[in-house]
Structures are given as structure tokens and as C-alpha cells.
Design goal:
The complex is a heterodimer of chains A (about 160) and B (about 850). Helices cover about 10% and strands about 30% of the residues of chain A. Chain A is mainly beta. By secondary structure, chain B is of the alpha/beta class. The chains are: A mainly beta (about 160), B alpha/beta (about 850).
């Protein structure tokens, strides 16, 4: 089970695409901080291939009935983020089509409908504390992106 | 006898129709004919015969002074310049035009007219004999080179006389005198105007207005001599600069004199009523054929219209009241007893020697108790006066010199008796910084209507130390709803900070310490072609949703590379990314271009079929095109493939770029249209489509002054005149509507396009991010006058550069949808999910309404749930 974990949403990708090395601390904090990833309940779903991604932009993918927005920030740490695709302010499935922004070194996505900003690392809305996106742990393997799956009761809480 | 045998025409002999005779084919007589014939379409009841003393059909006397210019431009084979109707007009079977056949007498008992060629029976008679120029009884007025200014023959005589001449004098400094001076100037003569009164245009203008006009006209090289009564005209003894003798010399009552080569009398007009007088019709004491409100004379079979007619003791020496009489007479003759002439407003607006002059109502303030307000700018040569009633509530009159853009609003106040605003002077103060400045907003004004945030709430936040726009947004929620108030909010914040002495940063965002305008220049001068290059050289960090689309727009405005080309794709807002407009439920709308709003039935069917096939909600937009709503991302390429195959192009409804050029149907159909507004709108729309700008741009073209295309509410508004096009700029509808300002008048097609080219390019180069033209205009130091100087007078000598840049943008145009469909990589982006089949459209939540599908009103965030 350790092999996929080392590639979790990090720039420490061992498939040598980015050439950066193994400073994985922040990445693991971001996506797995509260998750007992080593538990045996872990399963994975394939989301996308590298060719599907658009650098510095988002695409939507499905994991079962769940809709995810994947953002690809080549050269950054981490370089891949997965958040929920639904805009919590309107309920429309649009978040993958928002623009990626950066402020004080933190990355966020701006909803394409009403421009609320959601931090990619934890899904918090920067303009309205009552809103947030769910974040998902994802990882690379063989130029494919996988979603880590948990048992339902272990899901990260949404805000 | 119904007709003289020698004048009969066989084809018309067969119809024993009634005979309508019109004496005079001037502007008013011609207008009568047009009105009459348009009412009589399909009817053979009447035959109309027109007698003209001149040897040519009706022409535009108002623009007589342009004749010499026009003569040089018009090929001799074409219709002569200034002629009002096409030659075909006079070929209509129920109309006979008799040129060069003045009517010599009217026999009212027999109902007959007599000319040099014979006698004619009339059942009804219309006198439109106009007026003749008054020549004051000055000694020597009958010698050669002493002329008048009324007809084209008069102009021919002036032209002949100008050969070998170097100087010409116009006696009379009224409206017509200044027109005549313009004609002399165009013939290359040194023009002088001699006026008996102490000022120019004493009827229409007050003394200050007259003196401002004088300054302007003298600056154009016309010499003005006021307060001079000419006593005699004698043979000259003075020599010109080249040693030649002048022909004539004017001697004035004050002992001074003026040498010249020709003299044009323009000291007023008198009604041409001799024929009526000889026939025994009732005349006014000082001339003029007396008419009632039906335009009937004292003989019920005879009507009089135009300058020869006297209504309630009043003569009307303007063309507009003449036209009103023409319409009245035509209606009454056709049996409409309700038609009546009720007098006319004598307000005028015109351009004399290129100087705007306007006069409304009681321009002299003669009403007892009247109060006047003045604005005067000697530098710009502008003078404006308001005459108010004693309460200051009603506008009685106004005088404008130098800028007539104020005229229309003032005229409405005066004509409709509308109550004036509390500070009526705002109506004549310069409009450079108009009401768009937030200073003028009261504290109670709502800035954000989504969250009901007042200006006071924003001021309070600023007082508590919030100085960043983002901070204001998060603590007041202003501009976090629809976002439509974002730029207003920014203005309010900046103004509040400035008033508290805080310096306001014009930085675009935290990544660029420059304004949009500065970034534009950096991009252009540094030949920067990508966002990354710009960020590396002039910015920091990784960019945001503010700077990315702004820079993408700048790059497109400079180089016009496809916006979905690889380096640019991640910069675009979702609407630009998917070349469609995202709607509230995450679906998109599709708007093909329909230039000028003109569409063939076949193309309309294509839209109908596509709409039906994909179940798209279909609505006509305000910009005269058709919006198809509710397409999913996956459907967009399929829909566009069908549209493009049928010949449609992208409409750029998603872009900060030209949206539409709205038009009325114009002269090709409309009986009032004076220019082909549809063709012009199509030309403009095709010219500027795809040009990226700081904000969206809307245009419109109206085919006449009735303005059915509502051009004055657009960034660029074009309104047809009889001589070309008037251009209005920087208007908008929306949250803070603003009427466009009159920018230039009577432009030719080429002049119009060049002016718009330069204006747009200058806007693109200098406006702030998401700044509409109206707000941009407000930020320019010097406002409209400055903009006119830059664009019309090329004061910064940017003209050629602006032309070249616009030409580049136009040459690089491509239909973005066509490009996207032909590029497999771009096309592959139109997928709702990269790893799953397209979603059912139903999953977006639609409900039926009035036979179409709209987003479900109960759209809510679904439960978040992951299945194992």
C-alpha cells in the first residue's frame, strides 16, 4: 500500500515527469492530514490521464456519482488538486471551469458564477466563511490520476 | 376644357381624373408632392402637375453652400448634387413636372392657371412659391458683381463672378449670410460679412453668443464687420496685393470703406406672394398669403404652404415648419379634416462654417421676470445660456455656440415644459466628468442591489480601516452577488480613500504593480506575447482571476492570436474558454452572429431546427439576435458544427468585444429613412467583430433622426442625416444609463469608419480593466473635448498608428468556433467529464415554462456522497 501513498498529490512524483524531488510534507498535510491512509479500507478510482489535464486550469471528472474538479499546476507543490465540482453557492456543477488564482503564495479557484474564492488546499471560501468545497486526496500512477477512496464514515467533513 | 391640347399626354387622356396643381418646386413643394403621392398610392383619382420657375427639380436649399464642393465630387452623369428626389420620382404616371414654366396668373372664377405655354384647369391648387431675397435700397446695388444668394442659378452667378476675384462681401450677418460667406470661402475668396446690427445672427443669438460666434468665425478666416450700414457701392480705386484693381468699394455710414470684387446680398427674405396678390387672395399687411390651420387661403380651392404662407400673422422662414404645412395640406386635400397646422417651434440648430449654433425659444430672455444662467469658455470657444422663468422651474429659451450636443435635451425641456432639475446649470456645464463620479451619489444610494449595500455602509467600512477592495467585499458583501456593481464599488472606495488622504493604488492586482493601460504599453513596447513572459518581466507570483483575463484581453487586443491557443487558454474566463455564456445552472448559451440583425428566412430556419433538436430555450436578445440557452458543454461543438456548416459565425456574446450593431431598417424600406442603416450596421459589425477590448462594446445605426435603433444608448451610435452620418460616442444602458455624446456630424462613410477605428483603438489602448467607454470618457482629463482633439484633430499625432493597429486586428480575425472545431485538442476540452459519458441534460434540472425548458427553480446543492 505504500507505493501509491508516496505519489499522493505531490510534486514528489516518482515517474520523473516533473523532475522535482521528494519534499512531500505540505502535500501530505494538505490532503491526508486527518486521514488514516494506511487503513485497509483504502480503494482507488481512476479519474483522468495526464493528457486530459490542462496546465493551470481545471477539468471535471466523475468518481461514481461524485463530481470532482481537478486542477493541474505544473511545477508547484503539490501540482494536482481535487475538489468538489459543485459550486456551494448555487448548486451548479461549474467549479472546474473557474480560474486559478494565487494570493500570498496560496492557490485558490474562483467560482465562474459569482467569483467566490476557494482555497485549493482545504476548500475554505476566502470571502464567505459559511461556504466551502470538499477536498479529495488524489495521486499519480503511470500518468493516471487516482482518487483515494475511504469508507463512508471516514469522509472528510464538508463545511 | 380640362387641359390645353398642346400639353396633353395621350396616356393620361384616358383618365378623367381631378387636377391638382402645385406652383413651385422648392423644398416645401417637393415635400408636399412626396406626402401626397404616398397617400395616393394605387389611386387614379387625382393627377398632379407641378410648375417650377427654375429649370431643375427641387434641391436642398439648406445646404446650398456645399454646392461647390459637391460639384467637384459628383460625376456629371449622375443625379446633380443637392437634388432632393431621384429622377425616377418624376417618372410616376400621376405626376407631371413642368420645369422653367412659371405661372403668370390665376383665374379663380374659371379655376385656371396661365403660363407662357397655355392654360390649365385646376380642381385644387397649392401655392408653394417660397420667398425671394430682400435687397436693401443701397445706391449702386444693380451694377455687375452685385448678387443674391437663393437659388442654384444665383450660385452659378457667384461662381462666374468669383473668377478673377480675390475678395467677396456678404451684406447681412444672419443665418443665410453666414451660409453665403461659407460659399465665398469655398470659392477661395477672402470672405467678409457686413452686418447692420452690433452682432451676428441678432435674431437667434444674444450679444455674448453673437460675439463668441464672431470669434470662431474670424478664427476660420472670415472677416466680420458689425454695426455697419452700407450707404453705397461704387467702382473701386484700390489695388489688391498683386497690383490688380478691386472691382467694387463699399462705403459705410461711419465714413469707412471696404474694397472687394463681388457683393452678395443676404439681408433677409420676403414672401413670394405676387401671384396670390394679383389673384386677389387675402395677404398680410407686410406680405404673406393668409392661411388657416388647414393651410387654406381665402379661396377654399387654393392652399398655401411654406415661406409664402402667413399663419396667425406669422411667417415661417425655416424648412421644418414648411414641411409641417406640406403634410397638413396633403392630409386635408386627401380628406383628413382633422389635420391642422398649429404653428411651429422656431428653434434652430445648425453648423455655420463648421461652428455649432443653436437657438431655442426665448433666446433673448424677453419674457418678463426671466432669469438667465451662462456658461462661457473662451479657450474652447463655447458659450451657453439658459433662460428660465422667474421660478427657475421651466426652460424658456437657450443659446448655444460651439457645441450643440446640449441642444436636444434643452429642446425637450423647453418644448414639453418639463420641470427643470434643482440645479439647472448642470444642463449646460461640460459633461466630461458626468454623474458617473461617485461623489455625486448620496450616502443612501444603493451600491450593491444584490446584498442591499448602501454607500454609507461602504464609507463605514473604510472608516473602520478597510482599504482593500477584497476587504470591503468580504465585510460588506458588496459586489459578491451578481458582481455588476464591482466597478462602481471600486470607484466609491477609491473616492472615499482619496477624500481621506489615503493614496489609491491603481495596481491591477497583487501580481502586477501597474494599471491596465501601463500593462498594455509594456506588452506592446516589449512585444510580449504570453502571460508568463509578462509575469516574469513585470510581475510576481502566479496571477489571479483579475489579472489573467485582463492580460489575455490585452494580448488579444495587441496581437489577436486565437484566445484558445495553448499559452492563453488557462487565462480565459469560462465564457471565453468555451466560447459560450455560462448560465446559472452550469449550462451554456449559444449566440451566433447576425450582423445588423438582418437574417434570411433560411438561416432563421436553421436556428429553429437547431433549437428544436437540442431542446434549447430560445429568446430574441436586445441586440437583435437570437440566444439559444441550455446547451451542455458536450453539446456545444455539435451545435456549432451545424451552425457553422449553415454559414453562421460566432457572435462573441461571451467576449469583452463587439457584441452587436443594432440597426433600424433604414432607407431601403422606411419612408423616413435617409441612409441605408442596415448596410452600414453590417459593415461595422463585420469590421469590428472579434476585436478584444477592455469591456464589451455595443453599437447601433439609425437610418434617420427618429433613432429607432436607440444608437444614443450605445458605446458607438451612428445616426443618419441627409448628408451622411452623425456619430455619438460613449453611451450605455445598463445600471447607470448614459446618453452618448455627439462627437462628429455629417460624416461620409469613409470618415465615419476612420473615426470609429481610431476611437476604438484609443479606448482599447487607454481604458482601465472592465471600464466601459462612458466611464473611460469620464476619466480623460479634458473629457469630450480632449477626445475630439485626439481623434478628430489628431492632436497627439496618433492617427496613423491607431489606423495601422486596427487594420492589423481586422486582418487577423478568425471565427473562434471554426478554429476550435478544426483543432482536435481544443475540441476535446468540450467534455463535461474527462472520464465519463456526457451527463444527461436532465441532470442539470430543467422545468417546462411556456413551451420551453428553463433551469429548475428549485436548483439546490445535491447531497455530497461517495459510494464505495
Amino acid at each position: 500500500m505504500n507505493a501509491p501513498l508516496q505519489r499522493l498529490v505531490s510534486n514528489a512524483d516518482t515517474n520523473s515527469r516533473t523532475g522535482t524531488d521528494t519534499a512531500t510534507g505540505s502535500a501530505t498535510d494538505n490532503s491526508l492530514g486527518q486521514t488514516p491512509a494506511h487503513q485497509g479500507s483504502l480503494a482507488s478510482l481512476p479519474l483522468a490521464s495526464l493528457a486530459d489535464l490542462v496546465p493551470w486550469s481545471g477539468v471535471a471528472a466523475k468518481a461514481g456519482s461524485q463530481e470532482l474538479a481537478l486542477f493541474y499546476l505544473p511545477g508547484q507543490s503539490p501540482e494536482l488538486y481535487a475538489v468538489s465540482h459543485r459550486d456551494p453557492a448555487t448548486g451548479a456543477a461549474v467549479i472546474a471551469h473557474g480560474l486559478i488564482g494565487e494570493s500570498q503564495g496560496e492557490f485558490y479557484v474562483a467560482s465562474p458564477l459569482h467569483k467566490q474564492q476557494y482555497r485549493l488546499s482545504d476548500g475554505c471560501c476566502l470571502n464567505d466563511p459559511t461556504l466551502s468545497l470538499q477536498v479529495y486526496p488524489v495521486y499519480w500512477q503511470d500518468d493516471r490520476i487516482w482518487l483515494m477512496q475511504y469508507e463512508a464514515e471516514q469522509l472528510p467533513q464538508t463545511g | 376644357m380640362t387641359k390645353p391640347s398642346k400639353m396633353t399626354e395621350p396616356s393620361k387622356m384616358t383618365k378623367p381624373s381631378k387636377q391638382l396643381m402645385v406652383v413651385g418646386n422648392g423644398m416645401v413643394g417637393q415635400h408636399f408632392l412626396e406626402q401626397w403621392l404616398s397617400q395616393q398610392v394605387g389611386s387614379d383619382d387625382w393627377h398632379v402637375t407641378v410648375f417650377a420657375a427654375e429649370n431643375r427639380p427641387a434641391y436642398d436649399r439648406v445646404h446650398l453652400s456645399e454646392y461647390f464642393q459637391l460639384m467637384q465630387k459628383t460625376p456629371s452623369t449622375e443625379q446633380p448634387p443637392l437634388q432632393l428626389a431621384s429622377n425616377d420620382f418624376y417618372q410616376q404616371p400621376q405626376l407631371s413636372l413642368k420645369l422653367n414654366e412659371p405661372v403668370l396668373a390665376i383665374d379663380r372664377q374659371q379655376q385656371q392657371l396661365r403660363t407662357a405655354h397655355g392654360s390649365y384647369h385646376y380642381d385644387a391648387l397649392v401655392l408653394a412659391t417660397g420667398s425671394y431675397p430682400f435687397v436693401p435700397p443701397i445706391e449702386g446695388r444693380e451694377q455687375p458683381h452685385c448678387l443674391v444668394y437663393r437659388t442654384l442659378d444665383d450660385l452659378e452667378a457667384i461662381y462666374q463672378s468669383s473668377q478673377g476675384a480675390s475678395s467677396g462681401v456678404v451684406i447681412g450677418g444672419g443665418l443665410l449670410g453666414l451660409e453665403a460667406a461659407n460659399a465665398l470661402k469655398q470659392l477661395g475668396l477672402q470672405a467678409h460679412v457686413v452686418e447692420f446690427a452690433p452682432q451676428l445672427m441678432p435674431v437667434q443669438l444674444d450679444a455674448a453668443g453673437g460675439s463668441m460666434l464672431r470669434q470662431q468665425i474670424e478664427a476660420l478666416g472670415v472677416q466680420v464687420h458689425t454695426d455697419k450700414a452700407t450707404q453705397r457701392i461704387v467702382k473701386s480705386t484700390q489695388r489688391t496685393g498683386e497690383g490688380k484693381e478691386h472691382r467694387l468699394q463699399l462705403e459705410f455710414n461711419d465714413g469707412s470703406s471696404l474694397a472687394t470684387d463681388l457683393v452678395v446680398f443676404s439681408a433677409g427674405i420676403r414672401p413670394q406672394d405676387a401671384l396670390a396678390k394679383a389673384a386677389g387672395l387675402e395677404l398680410g399687411e407686410r406680405g404673406g398669403i393668409v392661411i388657416d390651420s388647414s393651410c387654406r387661403t381665402s379661396d377654399p380651392a387654393i392652399y398655401a404652404i411654406g415661406e409664402c404662407a402667413l399663419w396667425q400673422g406669422q411667417l415661417f422662414g425655416l424648412v421644418a415648419p414648411g414641411y409641417q404645412m406640406a403634410r397638413t395640406a396633403a392630409a386635408v386635400l386627401a380628406g383628413d379634416s382633422s389635420a391642422s397646422f398649429q404653428g411651429a417651434d422656431m428653434s434652430t440648430k445648425l453648423k455655420l462654417l463648421g461652428v455649432d449654433v443653436g437657438s431655442i425659444g426665448d433666446a433673448h430672455g424677453r419674457t418678463p421676470g426671466a432669469v438667465s444662467l451662462y456658461y462661457r469658455n473662451d479657450k474652447a470657444g463655447h458659450y451657453r445660456k439658459l433662460v428660465l422663468d422667474q421660478d427657475g422651474k421651466q426652460l424658456l429659451g437657450a443659446v448655444l455656440v460651439g457645441d450643440n450636443s446640449y441642444y436636444d435635451a434643452l429642446l425637450s425641456f423647453a418644448l414639453h415644459g418639463m420641470t427643470l432639475p434643482a440645479e439647472p446649470e448642470s444642463l449646460i456645464l461640460p459633461q466630461g466628468q458626468t454623474s458617473l463620479t461617485p461623489t455625486s451619489l448620496p450616502d443612501s444610494a444603493t451600491i450593491c442591489s444584490c446584498h442591499n449595500v448602501s454607500k454609507a455602509a461602504i464609507c463605514q467600512a473604510v472608516d473602520q480601516g478597510v482599504t482593500e477592495l477584497a476587504g470591503i467585499k468580504s465585510c460588506t458583501k458588496a459586489a459578491t452577488g451578481c458582481g455588476g456593481c464591482a466597478s462602481l464599488l471600486k470607484n466609491v472606495l477609491e473616492q472615499e480613500l482619496t477624500s481621506r488622504g489615503v493614496s489609491v493604488s491603481k495596481d491591477l492586482c497583487e501580481h502586477f504593480g501597474y494599471s491596465r493601460q501601463e500593462l498594455y504599453h509594456l506588452v506592446r513596447v516589449g512585444k510580449i506575447r504570453t502571460f508568463d513572459q509578462l509575469l516574469q518581466q513585470h510581475g510576481k507570483g502566479h496571477g489571479c482571476e483579475i489579472c489573467k483575463p485582463a492580460v489575455a484581453s490585452i494580448l488579444a487586443s495587441c496581437w489577436n492570436e486565437p484566445i484558445l491557443a495553448k499559452p492563453h487558454v488557462s487565462l480565459q474566463d469560462t465564457n471565453d474558454t468555451f466560447l459560450a455564456n455560462m448560465q446559472k445552472n452550469g449550462t451554456y448559451s449559444v449566440v451566433p452572429r447576425i450582423p445588423g440583425g438582418e437574417i434570411t428566412p433560411d438561416m432563421l430556419l436553421v436556428l429553429g431546427e437547431v433549437g428544436r433538436k437540442y431542446q434549447l430555450y430560445t429568446k430574441i436578445t436586445g441586440g437583435q439576435r437570437i440566444d439559444l440557452f441550455g446547451a451542455t458543454l458536450d453539446q456545444l461543438p455539435l451545435i456549432w458544427q451545424e451552425l457553422i456548416d449553415a454559414g453562421f459565425e460566432t457572435g462573441h456574446a461571451y467576449g469583452k468585444s463587439l457584441r452587436t450593431v443594432k440597426s433600424c431598417v433604414g432607407s431601403s424600406w422606411c419612408r423616413y429613412g435617409v441612409q441605408d442603416s442596415v448596410s452600414m450596421a453590417i459593415l461595422l459589425e463585420n469590421r469590428y467583430k472579434g476585436v478584444r477590448a477592455p469591456h464589451k462594446i455595443k453599437m447601433a445605426v439609425s437610418g434617420c433622426t427618429r433613432e429607432c435603433a436607440e444608437a444614443q444608448s450605445k458605446d458607438v451610435g451612428v445616426i443618419a442625416t441627409e448628408n451622411g452620418w452623425n456619430l455619438y460616442v460613449c453611451g450605455n444602458g445598463g445600471m447607470k444609463p448614459r446618453h452618448a455624446d455627439l462627437f462628429a456630424t455629417d460624416l461620409t462613410d469613409d470618415q465615419l469608419i476612420r473615426t470609429i477605428d481610431r476611437l476604438l483603438m484609443f479606448y482599447i489602448q487607454t481604458a482601465d480593466r472592465l471600464q466601459r467607454t462612458s466611464v473611460w470618457l469620464g476619466t480623460l482629463d479634458g473629457g469630450l473635448d480632449y477626445l475630439k482633439a485626439v481623434i478628430l484633430d489628431d492632436s497627439l499625432q496618433l492617427g496613423e498608428q491607431l489606423d495601422a493597429q486596427m487594420a492589423h486586428l481586422i486582418a487577423e480575425y478568425q471565427c473562434e468556433w471554426k478554429t476550435a472545431l478544426n483543432d482536435p485538442e481544443q475540441r476535446s476540452r468540450f467534455r463535461s467529464f474527462v472520464n465519463a459519458a456526457p451527463p444527461e441534460r436532465a441532470s442539470f434540472g430543467f422545468q417546462p415554462e411556456r413551451g420551453q425548458l428553463i433551469p429548475s427553480r428549485t436548483l439546490e446543492a445535491p447531497q455530497q456522497e461517495i459510494k464505495p
